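// run 5 | inverse folding | seed 20
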């Protein structure tokens, strides 16, 4: 007999659940939240310092704001997903923002434009219910081309655009980290070992952490990593960060930039929608084991929550696309524990909030952890992008059903990776129409409050998001 959803304080369509009061603390999720978040949550810092004019401490403050907003998805808005970045969009976003000019202010205004455009798009599509219809209306070839474009852009940034800044500075440690994570996440021989040996499966469940730990150990031995650990506590300089990033200080983007950013916001929405459908399917599969807890799946609430989070980020610490719906790997790990029964995890919301609300914000104040990770952040960034590239590529190439569509997908992906978003999207639409046709297939989309089973979508294992 299904019980009502875990109670909290209702406000509008949302539910506020206060950690410790409404939810229980689970230590396994807390420790994973601290250490795995440490491996990924700070990996944007090299980009913020190199391309956007922030100091290391200011970039830590920006990362803290991003993580607090991510945690608000469960605590403030009551979402049932493990949220993260919209990682496949990151390489396309970096190309767009860095491409507006050398001035960090212009680049941050481009990030603001993307965040506010995306928030507006989410709000309108959520309010009208057009989001589901829009994604069903898109042809499969164009969807696959967009995902492959993200893959090519991610790999291009690692191996070409930023190779001298990151990969070639730490080639052995970065290669080892990427190899270990790719093998544990995607290797078919390793999959057989995970089924045979429980300890292999446990290591694989840690996501990016094993590869990151090996890089941290091997890096000093080959002279690519030098640690300078400082003791004490760090108070992130939020005020200094605000003065460098907030559009209230540096100015809002002009209308031209807002219009230029909209195609990329639309592309990101398509990626987001796939995450929502995947997350719903993982929850529904878990509900077959946990019929003692009701989980409210509400796409309209999700659209509104994401719109608010992206708008708040856009006016405080704009760095699109850190405010997505789901970190698939973590979502799956927490659901697996929740499926084991009430004695293991009383509520899915308790597990999610233990991982995020009680884990991630802690690390930004621990100076030894932050300074110890500093020489590894370039490796973490390369690792994030390589895994994103691989995952997006295999998802994209599984979608086409004939050779014409496969060829078109590669052309669309290249267009999006190498040209401006407007040009790439227009090129993708024309390529689809002329070479394949509008090959739309109606995918089952979960209805609000509907517990009917949904056809599974490919679960992508991303760094975050």
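// decoded
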């Amino acid at each position: 007999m299904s019980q009502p959803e875990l109670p909290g304080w209702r406000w509008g369509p949302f539910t506020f659940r206060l950690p410790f009061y409404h939810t229980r603390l689970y230590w396994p999720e807390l420790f994973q939240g601290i250490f795995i978040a440490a491996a990924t949550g700070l990996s944007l810092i090299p980009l913020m310092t190199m391309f956007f004019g922030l100091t290391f401490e200011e970039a830590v403050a920006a990362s803290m704001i991003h993580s607090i907003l991510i945690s608000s998805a469960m605590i403030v808005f009551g979402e049932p997903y493990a949220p993260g970045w919209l990682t496949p969009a990151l390489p396309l976003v970096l190309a767009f923002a860095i491409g507006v000019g050398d001035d960090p202010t212009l680049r941050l205004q481009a990030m603001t434009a993307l965040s506010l455009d995306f928030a507006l798009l989410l709000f309108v599509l959520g309010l009208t219910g057009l989001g589901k219809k829009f994604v069903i209306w898109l042809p499969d070839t164009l969807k696959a081309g967009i995902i492959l474009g993200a893959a090519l852009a991610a790999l291009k940034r690692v191996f070409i655009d930023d190779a001298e800044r990151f990969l070639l500075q730490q080639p052995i440690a970065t290669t080892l980290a990427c190899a270990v994570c790719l093998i544990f996440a995607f290797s078919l021989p390793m999959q057989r070992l995970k089924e045979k040996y429980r300890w292999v499966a446990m290591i694989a469940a840690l996501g990016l952490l094993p590869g990151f730990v090996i890089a941290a150990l091997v890096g000093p031995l080959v002279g690519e990593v030098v640690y300078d650990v400082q003791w004490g506590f760090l108070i992130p300089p939020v005020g200094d960060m605000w003065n460098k990033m907030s559009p209230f200080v540096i100015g809002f983007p002009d209308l031209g930039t807002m219009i230029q950013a909209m195609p990329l916001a639309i592309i990101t929405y398509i990626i987001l929608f796939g995450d929502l459908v995947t997350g719903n399917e993982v929850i529904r599969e878990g509900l077959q084991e946990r019929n003692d807890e009701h989980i409210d799946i509400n796409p309209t609430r999700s659209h509104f929550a994401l719109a608010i989070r992206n708008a708040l980020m856009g006016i405080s610490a704009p760095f699109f696309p850190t405010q997505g719906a789901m970190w698939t790997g973590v979502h799956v790990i927490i659901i697996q524990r929740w499926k084991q029964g009430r004695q293991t995890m009383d509520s899915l919301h308790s597990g999610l909030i233990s991982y995020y609300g009680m884990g991630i914000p802690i690390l930004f104040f621990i100076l030894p952890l932050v300074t110890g990770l500093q020489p590894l952040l370039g490796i973490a960034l390369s690792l994030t992008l390589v895994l994103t590239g691989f995952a997006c590529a295999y998802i994209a190439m599984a979608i086409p059903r004939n050779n014409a569509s496969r060829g078109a997908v590669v052309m669309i992906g290249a267009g999006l990776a190498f040209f401006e978003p407007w040009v790439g999207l227009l090129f993708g639409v024309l390529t689809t129409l002329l070479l394949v046709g509008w090959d739309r297939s109606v995918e089952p989309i979960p209805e609000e409050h509907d517990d009917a089973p949904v056809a599974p979508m490919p679960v992508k294992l991303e760094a975050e998001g």
